[in-house]
Amino acid sequence: MKQTENGRRRVVVTGLGAITPLGLSADAFWSNLVAGVSGIGPMTLCDPTDYPCRIAGQADDFEPTDFIDRREARRMARFSQMAVAAALQAVADSGLDMEQEDPYRVGVLLGNGNGGFPTLEENCRILADRGGMRMSPFFFPMVLPNMAAANVSQYVGARGYNSTVTTACAASNNAIGEALMAIRHGVADAMVTGGTEAGISQLGLAGFAVMRALSTRNDEPHRASRPFDAERDGFVPAEGAGILVLEESERARTRGANIICELVGFGATSDAGHLVQPQETGESAAKAMQGALDDAGLGTGDVDYINAHGTSTPMNDAAETVAIKRLFGDAAYKVPISSTKGMIGHSLGASGALEAVACVKTIMDQRIHPTVNQESPDPDCDLDYVPNESRAADVGVVLSNAFGFGGQNACLVFRRWEK
């Protein structure tokens, strides 16, 4: 296969990093996913006593100073700390030596949903109780959504194209897709991309609780997130960061990089409808999936696995199932599908990035992780969701879905690397 397709530069994945409720590396994350382990437990990052949801997917073992100087870590919100930690892992995994690179040809493009919500809440309390002049002088550098990308850029030494996408739960897929385009169009030769979120706070918890979007299965945290199951009652809030290093394929080969797989497709659409409810017909979500496949030069028959958005909310899971059926027709019943969120919860703007790491690992290991807590069949969700146990499979092409508030849909296609 040529190094360019349809006149475009080919883009490959050469590095992975992850900070998750299931481990503080991509390998640990994947090992626990395949084993069907749940990373959901009691919420401790804030006091959830007065709220109907008191559980979360937290990266409890994450210690920022394992990755970042203590003084600098104190000047970052948690979402930035996680992004930097995952980015340092991914760059090390890629073997990218920034001292040997033109730093202006290496960029950073991240997605997140809300920036530093816990820091925002903390400083609003200070404003109300003690006055604005007692707020942290680092308030803005901590809370602004673009600060994760800014901090990653500083820590890895990437001085090229730098941006942030904030399309809610589709943010990471949008960011990775736009990083793909940046390399294709020659804006950069390599991109550090993915997403991060650390919004577990009373502010975030209350916002979703009053919408009745969260699971209330507090007595059984590990069974609370149950995508596509008839007994699902809402999503479980989570945090984390997932980072991929993308490179133009020929430069990666020339420097002897370990090419993990290829990123070949990106599609994005808008429902242009309800701001928080998915489109029942699945039309726009199906168009996003179709767009990603068209971009990749592939058809539905080429897809070996779908990593679903699969939030564990009644409306989302049914609508995503409809969208997959709309695009794939009868073949929808033959394509294995699973949701990563069953084991880690919903990390909002970071979810697509963590799922992208899982997709890449699926191609590497030729194994599909399960959708856990598949116990009660739902007639509206009747596809093959790989229930409860991982499955060995010949996986050459993976489609990954992410659908966000605002009706924003973003899908990616990864493919096994072939020279």
| Uncertain stretches of 5 or more adjacent residues | none
Structural class: alpha/beta
Q: Can you write the helix and strand succession as a string? A: EEEHEEHHEHHHEHEHEHEHEHEHHEEEE
How would you describe the shape? globular
Structural write-up:
- The chain has 419 residues and is α/β, with parallel strands linked by helices.
- The protein is built from 13 helices and 16 strands.
- It has helices spanning 26-34, 70-74, 78-94, 117-130, 139-143, 147-156, 171-184, 202-209, 249-254, 283-296, 314-328, 341-344, 351-365, and strands spanning 4-5, 8-9, 11-19, 40-42, 55-57, 106-111, 162-165, 190-197, 240-248, 261-270, 305-307, 337-338, 367-368, 391-392, 397-404, 408-415.
- Strands 7-6-8-9-3-10-16-15-11-12 form a ten-stranded mixed beta sheet, with helices on both faces. Strands 1-2 form a two-stranded antiparallel sheet. Strands 4-5 form a two-stranded antiparallel ribbon.
- The protein is globular, with a radius of gyration of 20 Å.
- The model has no long low-confidence stretch (mean pLDDT 96).
Short description:
The chain is 32% helix and 19% strand.
Quick tags:
3-oxoacyl-[acyl-carrier-protein] synthase activity; Peroxisomal Thiolase, Chain A, domain 1; 13 helices; single chain; 3-oxoacyl-[acyl-carrier-protein] synthase; two-stranded antiparallel ribbon; ten-stranded mixed beta sheet; 2 domains; alpha/beta; 419 residues
